Amino acid sequence: MTALILHGGAGARRERNYDAEVAHMRQVVEAMKARLDAGDSALDVATAAVVLLEDSGLYVAGKGASPNLAGAYELDASIMDGATRRAGAVAALQGFRNPVLAARAVMERTPHVMLAGEGAALFAHDQGLEPIADEVAWFTHAGQGEDNHPPGTLSHGTVGCCVLDAQGRLAAATSTAGVFGKMPGRVGDTPLPAAGTWADGRVAASGTGQGEYFIRVAATAQVGWRVGAGQTLAQAAQAVIDDIGAMGGDGGLIALDAQGNTAAPFNSQGMKRAWLTPAGEIGVEVFGR
Fold it and tell me: Which of 2, 47, 158, 197 is catalytic?
């Protein structure tokens, strides 16, 4: 049995057309289904899916990143392997194409969980990861103005993927440029295991929204803990988003459990998402619940 769910970020606005994102997310799920059918691991599939989302320029991550207040592109990503609880992350990474690959390299090739800023960039260079030669030519500025938050508030965008492979292993990966107009050096929930990304033996989850609130409630890990305490995946995921909403935050999350159940609650206008069921069915949605 295999299953998958991915997101292209909460904060979608009803007045915008998302046909390109819908078509792309379906293509990504179809490609990942082929990989799962071929026996690829959850970790490899989660990584590959997020690379495709980063490279598309359609979401506020990777190529579609938005700059911070100083005009610099500081990117965050994390990945977690549920079978081993290994995790890797980069924060405020500049100059490299795929932060999720840097996060995975941190997990697999260092004794650490997170590298940040200049240290993350030096590590990415040493690992031979692909640099961005020309930021003006590379970044598409996709998603500018997507969210409907007034100036000075935390409008946002992120991508992520949760995967269950044929061996019953779960994994999750998340990548972002962070909130629009963020202060230089700002780090949100995305690169923080337990806040923006989580995977254990029961649940994988990836968040998207105003990261400061996701950090304060340990959002993605809380989904796993709630499931461990007896809640269904849907109950657990919704409770976390309700908690964030009660504090004044918005966004959503995707979650997948070891039985192939998925959940994707959000309290923003919409959340771009797509999924693969254990029966092999593919779905894509932006605004419907």
Answer: 158
